[in-house]
Design brief:
Number of helices: 5
Strand content: 35-45%
Strand order of the largest sheet: 1-2-3-4-12-11
Number of strands: 12
Distance between the termini: 127 Å
Number of domains: 2
Oligomer: single chain
Shape: elongated
Radius of gyration: 36 Å
Length: 270
């Protein structure tokens, strides 16, 4: 056979092409998954650091502004992811709560929920609502500031506040029980008589006045408590009710309170 001669293959035979090298794709997939996992882990580590920093800053500022004891428990809750909110320049919502917070002459359990809270100075927040909860002892401390109110007899029986006293008539003492409905008027807490008991029997205001005359005036009356002197001017009492064995007061907070010193200062009673 001479060089250059063509060799004919038997029918059905073909020359096989050399096998292609198969690219190994899976290492790239694994690397990508690892990178994504590391990125997610780094984000949540940063998120945890940011959350701890924000919560500690809020707690310290609240304790400083309210002159709270060093061991006072202050709970801070900021829902949602923090880093996007910090990048955006404000926190969507912040809830701060603490028990036995001094408010003037009394103490109460306070919860404040603020919205659109700026992280830079000189910017107003969106607004806030506050809830102050008083138990019987705390409410007695508040009502003890009201002249003539028998605070030591005060009780809570939803939906009313209760009190008792005695009317002396011709040397005889008559026990009087009064149920008082709480409400808000011009930012003041008002307790209005809803029912009376004379020696354990129900009696209305008219009959009580007819029987005791001017003596009945000490019970047939509203009791008003000005709270403005105890709270910042930017806080307005909006509602109050007896819930179970507590008195719950609701208030609105002006968003400009974070920048306006006049709103931060306590109000005054007319």
């Amino acid at each position: 056979m001479s060089t250059g001669d063509t060799v004919e293959l038997p029918p059905g035979w073909e020359v096989a092409e050399p096998p292609r090298r198969r690219r190994r794709v899976w290492p790239w997939i694994v690397a990508l998954v690892i990178l994504v996992a590391l990125a997610v882990a780094a984000f949540f580590i940063a998120e945890a650091v940011a959350r701890d920093m924000v919560e500690r800053t809020v707690k310290n500022e609240i304790s400083k502004q309210l002159s709270l004891p060093a061991d006072q428990e202050v709970d801070v809750e900021v829902p949602g992811l923090l880093i996007p909110q910090l990048i955006g320049g404000s926190l969507n919502e912040v809830t701060v709560s603490s028990q036995d917070v001094p408010v003037g002459a009394f103490e109460g359990d306070v919860t404040v929920t603020a919205t659109e809270v700026p992280i830079q100075q000189g910017v107003d927040m969106g607004g806030a609502t506050a809830t102050v909860t008083l138990d019987e002892e705390q409410l007695r401390s508040l009502m003890a500031t009201v002249e003539g109110f028998p605070a030591d007899t005060l009780g809570l029986a939803a939906p009313n506040v209760t009190m008792s006293t005695e009317l002396q008539f011709f040397g005889i003492e008559f026990p009087i029980g009064v149920a008082l409905t709480p409400s808000v008027s011009d930012g003041d807490l008002v307790l209005t008589p809803a029912s009376f008991e004379l020696a354990g029997a129900q009696i209305d205001a008219g009959a009580l006045s007819d029987r005791f005359g001017a003596l009945a005036d000490i019970v047939v009356r509203d009791w008003s408590v000005c709270l403005a002197q105890y709270i910042p001017a930017g806080v307005t009492l909006t509602g109050v009710e007896v819930v179970g064995d507590t008195l719950v007061a609701e208030a609105d907070v002006d968003g400009a309170i974070v920048t306006d010193p006049a709103l931060q200062a306590n109000g005054s009673c007319g």
